[in-house]
Amino acid sequence: PASARAAMRTWAVALAALARVGALRPAAERPCAMIVDVVLMSNHVSCIVNSTIASLIRLHSPRPRTVHVVVPDALVGACTAQLGAVARCHAEHALVGLSKDEVVSILIAKGERWLQKARSVRKRALWFYQQVVKLTLPLSLRSLSRHFLVWDADQLLARPYASCIDGHVRIDYVSTVDKHTARNTHYESTTRALLGYVSPPPRNWVTHKMYVVQAHARRMLERLCGAAHDASACAAEILRRIPTNADPHLGLSEYDLYAAYMLREAQALVLPQAVRLFRTEPLHKRPAAEICGELNAGLDGFLQRLGGQAAAAAADMIVVESF
Is the predicted pLDDT of residue 138 greater than 60, yes or no? Predict the structure, then answer.
């Protein structure tokens, strides 16, 4: 009948319109990705990094496509020799070309308070540098998947973990708070200066990882760096914009900054979730070689030995303190 043919034509037009909308919608806006790369940044190459990678490959969903490890320039050879079968190694200064002296110079230029703590600032320069290397990864490591995971190299995944739940990207906070995992208010002045707001208190959103949606991360970087599309220039600009009243020892957190941005600017995409963290030796680090002796006996055995402590047994992630 004519009415049926007209109805079919109407449906065809509607479906075609929906298809066009879907085709025009940027791929980076689609929630959750089945292909996810992982980036770890480390000052050393040890079995702890290897165990972290192994835990992510075994327990993270989706399974990482490629694992990238960023290390000091002098350790690229050792990284490739030890981890080359499971990861790609990168020299940190190939990503962001700022020297330690340049970082120190930018920081102590903030005024008398920072200049008076120049010795402490010099010790912390690498720490500040690593924050901006991680923040600018969308500009420096262009082969990364449209969603990628930044993960601390000394944090083992102890339980199955999915970065997306029901089509939403996880933004995690620490569930059990003690003196080692409480919200660090030192980060707030810089997050507010850079974004105009802070991550929602009283929760601690620093869980030593971040699931990065490149489309949103690039928009955040445009706000932080303006027209600076080069990773080194952008990193320098972020360091310059740390306010003078920030703590010279703990003046920036890439994780708190990104969580604050996503929770405000991408509310429909994200899902806040609690995670349980356990630190092996809070404030009492052990030599990496000593811990490696335990880890080399097997990750499962290492986690089971920690399980004698109730907090470790219940943890989703284990931060392995070492030097």
Answer: yes
